[in-house]
Amino acid sequence: MQKRYLEAATARMGAVAAFFMLGAVLFGALLTHAWAGEPSAASGAGPNPTSTPTPTLAAHAPRGVPQGYVVTPFGFFHPSCVHPVGRDQVLLGDGRIERADGTTIPVRACAYPSYATQGARIAPAGTASSAGLPVPGLAGTSPSADGWLEASWFNDKAPFGGIAAKWLVPSGPSSDAGQVLYYFPGLEDYENVVTILQPVLGWNGFNDHAWTISSWNCCTSGNVNYSNPEGVGTGDTIVGTVSGDCAAGKMCSTWNVATVDKTNGRQSTLKQTSSFGQTFDWAFAGVVEVYGVSACDQYSANGFVDFTSVSLLDVYDKRIRRPGWQASGLLQDSAPPCNYGVSVAPTSASLTF
């Protein structure tokens, strides 16, 4: 399975230049239309889990994060504020989760603060900015990378109708210290960040020390929502999509977020999930986000992730031919010195570490 990585690494050596336009403002195919399609048969895939795994306990959280918190793609949250959305369930606009039979699971506003990069506190049920927002260093923070590390992004005045991207599951890290790695594309509202929709590939995201896929919607009323994670393997092809669930030309109030393994046929999807009133005009072709990384060998061993076949749509479901993707680094001072870099093209983003 490593052959594709060796070939890709050879082809792209020297292509990634020094970049680091430090992002002071960064925070952090479709199920229908041009990206529609069923996954291939799940050859060799094991049975689906009978219960939904929970996110990884924050064993390496910065000072100030209380014990018992878990790691998410949005920072550190109290486990009572992190909610799985089942395969036949829908996340509603008021935060409730609707079952297939029409009954609902009540979800209260989170009663606990969450914590972003380097332990920055976010008030209970407050509007949470993405975990990647750079904040001043805090005394006593752990010497590691926590939060958004690198990103390719584009903001436009006109809202988007969806985004899709493809990438390979990288090699696992050479050293396992309980760190968590996330890779994803996604959509946000640039002017009024309330939530982010993202199809996520994660390593050790669910206390598993392995690769999984899951789709996420966070963080209205301080709550995090995710679809049932599915196991994937190094070398598998992942397709992540975020698509408006309404007619072309309309501002959608519900969206479909899908993370699909085209190699083993598994998928993890949030169907008709609420936009919580957001207008998505901030797109991310690819993001690297990590927690608890204190050495270079704790990143994926191959040293890079390439997002390809990136397709960004306008609200009329027309592909935007040449979006102005920007390359940004969000490296904290405490992160280990590794081979960081971002290179962008109209349909791709390459991120190294």
Short structural summary:
With 353 residues, the protein is mainly beta.
Structure in words:
The chain is mostly beta strands and 353 residues long. It has a single domain, classed as Jelly Rolls, CATH 2.60.120. The protein is 3% helix and 37% strand. It has one helix at 3-12, and strands at residues 70-72, 75-77, 82-85, 90-91, 97-98, 104-105, 114-115, 121-122, 145-155, 160-168, 180-188, 196-203, 211-218, 224-227, 230-231, 237-244, 254-261, 267-274, 282-293, 304-314, 326-329, 341-345, 348-352. Strands 3, 9, 11, 12, 13, 14, 15, 19 and 21 form a nine-stranded mixed β-sheet that branches. The longest helix is centred in the N-terminal third of the chain and has 10 residues, at 3-12. The protein is globular and about 45 Å long. The protein starts with a helix and ends with a strand. Residues 1-50 and 127-141 have low confidence and may be disordered.
The H-and-E topology, N to C, reads as HEEEEEEEEEEEEEEEEEEEEEEE
Mean pLDDT: 83
Number of individual domains: 1
Total number of strands: 23
Q: Tell me the structural class.
A: mainly beta
Shape: globular
Q: How far apart lie the N and C ends?
A: 20 Å
Q: How much strand content do the residues show?
A: 35-45%
Q: Under the CATH scheme, which architecture would be assigned? A: Sandwich
The number of distinct helices, counting runs of at least 4 residues, comes to 1
**What's the CATH class label?**
Mainly Beta
Biggest sheet features: 9 strands, mixed
Radius of gyration: 18 Å
CATH topology: Jelly Rolls
Low-confidence stretches: 1-50, 127-141
Fraction of residues in H or I helices = under 10%
